[in-house]
Task: structure prediction
Amino acid sequence: MVTSLEQDQTGRDTGTSFWKRVGIPPRGAGLHQALRDGIPYTVYTRLASMAGLEHKELAKYVVIPQATLQRRAKLGRFKQDEGDRLYRFAEVLEAATALFEGDKEGARQWLLHPVRGLGGRRPVEMLATSAEVEAVLELIGRLEHGVVA
Result:
């Protein structure tokens, strides 16, 4: 699995850390502290941009009401549970982009369309709970290894 990505001139991701571009640590104590302290609002805007989504779309997928999103924009940080959902979205986005070998548009299309391996649900509809995110990540892992069923 590709874990560090950088955009080249064709829009494909090729080199620098995905997580550095997002603005949060990928794992470990740094991530734990960032989640406790509150993920900065800039992470949200970067994720929306990297995923090619409107801010309202991303808010819907990570279950953050528009009024809450506006309050977080003013405060500059998300609460712990909101930040956790953003992190889970970032995990799925990174894994999908790696699955499509850095092709951000291919990953975006896969995330937005019904997937047979998820019972016909769209991956972006499965970001509200850790169990759903785990199912999406497991499917991506199986697809990377050529395991269809």
DSSP finds eight helices and no strands in the chain. The helical segments are 18-22, 28-37, 41-51, 55-61, 66-75, 80-99, 104-112, 130-144.
